[in-house]
Description:
The structure holds two protein chains of two kinds. By secondary structure, chain A is of the alpha/beta class. Chain A has helices at 16-27, 61-80, 98-113, 126-129, 151-162, 206-212, 244-250, 287-300, 346-361, 377-382; strands at 3-6, 9-12, 32-35, 51-52, 91-95, 119-122, 139-143, 147-148, 165-167, 172-177, 183-188, 191-194, 197-200, 220-231, 239-242, 257-264, 269-276, 309-319, 326-329, 336-340. Chain A folds into three domains: 5-47 and 152-219 and 322-373, FAD/NAD(P)-binding domain, CATH 3.50.50; 96-128 and 135-142, no CATH class; 220-319, D-Amino Acid Oxidase, subunit A, domain 2 (D-Amino Acid Oxidase, Chain A, domain 2, 2-Layer Sandwich). Chain A has an eight-stranded mixed beta sheet. Chain A has a six-stranded mixed beta sheet with strand order 9-3-2-13-20-19, with helices on both faces. In chain A, 54% of the residues are buried. Chain B is mostly beta strands. Chain B has a single domain, classed as 2Fe-2S iron-sulphur cluster binding domain, sarcosine oxidase, alpha subunit, N-terminal domain (Ubiquitin-like (UB roll)), CATH 3.10.20.440. Chain B is 7% helix and 28% strand. Chain B is globular. The chains are: A alpha/beta, B mainly beta. Chains A and B meet through loops of A and strand 6 of B.
Amino acid sequence: MSTRLTCDVVVIGAGMTGAACALYAARAGLDVTVVDRGPVAGGTTGAGEGNLLVSDKEPGPELELALLSLRLWAGLAGELGAPIEYEAKGGVVVASSAEGLAALTDLAAAQRTAGVVAETVTADRLHDLEPHLAPGLAGGVRYPQDSQVMPTLAAAHLLRASGARLLTGRNVTGVLRTADGSVRGVRTGHGDVHAPAVVNAAGTWGGEIAALAGARLPVLPRRGFVLVTEPLPRRVRHKVYAADYVTDVASDSAGLKTSPVVEGTAAGPVLIGASRERVGFDRSFSLPVVRALAAGAIRLFPFLTDVRAMRTYVGFRPYMPDHLPAIGPDPRVPGLFHACGHEGAGIGLATGTGHLLAQVLGGEAPEQDLAPFRPDRFEEEAA
Amino acid sequence: MSPLEPVRAEPDPAFTVTLDGREIEALPGQTVAAALWTAGVVSWRTTRGEGRPRGIFCGIGVCFDCLVTVNGRPNQRACLLPVRPGDAIRTQEGTGHED
């Protein structure tokens, strides 16, 4: 079947970011079509943990976007209710050494000035928050704003709430341009979709979409495994992670980095992360990585020694060289907008991204300055 | 017809295991699920949310529907776990762990 559709905006990508862009654009009165080569949440969205975090971000534009996004998530959770498994459960970051605790305390102090709620937790109070934590930790910080959703459900429900036309199983093979170079739609394997604006929400594959429009966008895959345990009664109450996680998130290393991140879920299983490697789109299972994840989790929660891991899953974070996403209009290609490259923070940052992008699409000034997220910021470095 | 007949199986002698304390017979080489089916039991777990009955679904270790508690260890896949003499099999409710 070949179709020729006309609408206001085509969003490429039916993941979390595409869903949020569709929702806020539709609410701004735009007629939206979402196109994806696979199913809803078939890429990185379906391979994540659904974290909505402020705790792992240093003060700066990403943290500002995270705070905006968390406010929007709380509002959406009120509208959409239980189906997206929104839990404002809070995060607890723990340090195993005095030096680690000092660095964590400094980070928390800086985050507080940026509007983050961060409560210092002394070693003797850690077990009030998490009774099953290992003994002997130096202390921690509790972040009550950290939350979680089930990302696949969240993407699906946001898409449904948007009322956007959803075309799954359609590979975008070209970006249509007018004689003056402006975008006028996309070509898919099943026909063209015409629109004066195209949003690239293709996540880790956003660089390929940008290339179809003749623009360079350096999005690279950064692989991560998640280990899933058998379902358990709620034994891990918060998202709990070791202070070195923040360093790993910010690192530029291509080599393997693992730092334990442990959290319970509404459905029962405990999710264990987080590994980071730049190995291209290699989906093959890695026993050393998964072993390192399990060992790290057991250091935080010794009871996990006797718990079975049922399975693992793997995904590719959309990594950009400065760890910031690309959000906003592409000055090189009129009518092309980007909303991708959020690395491991895409679920959390999706709502703010969609909201700001809808403001730009509607011709308004965005509530947050998009300059740090300019899609062409790497051109200057190259030149 | 016994499933042993078409393949002319000549298994070693049967042994005894228990399901919730009740003795049932099992054959060497059977999985826990096969032994339970042979004994006419088709569900041995209830779901976490609504307490619905579950047994074999995929039968090949993929779906995790047939979870069962054997010798005190919950959440084992009955379709993959070989049954051994004296095994204490217990029906599993919810997560199988104490709350």
